[in-house]
């Protein structure tokens, strides 16, 4: 690798690590108990039984 490519790669990883560190310190924690089930994400409806009979 050339010196400029090495510098660009190191700069990319440094910026990425700094961004993750900033996000880790400033983001509010995620409450996993309040999130919908992974299969219900994007459907807009609460999951319930009898999906096939609803049509």
Word description of this protein:
This protein is mainly α. It has a domain at 1-25. It contains one helix and no strands. 0% of the residues are buried.
Describe the global form. elongated
Main beta sheet: strand number and arrangement? none
Mean pLDDT: 80
Q: Helicity, in percent? A: 40-55%
DSSP, total strands: 0
Residue fraction in strands: under 5%
| First-last Cα distance | 60 Å
| Poorly predicted tracts of residues | none
Quick tags:
single chain, mainly alpha, 44% helix, elongated
In short:
The chain is an all-alpha fold.
Which SSEs are present, and which pair or pack?
Blueprint: H1 3-26
């Amino acid at each position: 690798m050339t010196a400029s490519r090495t510098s660009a790669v190191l700069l990319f990883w440094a910026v990425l690590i700094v961004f993750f560190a900033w996000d880790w310190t400033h983001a509010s924690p995620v409450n996993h108990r309040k999130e919908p089930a992974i299969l219900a994400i994007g459907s807009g409806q609460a999951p319930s039984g009898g999906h096939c009979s609803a049509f």
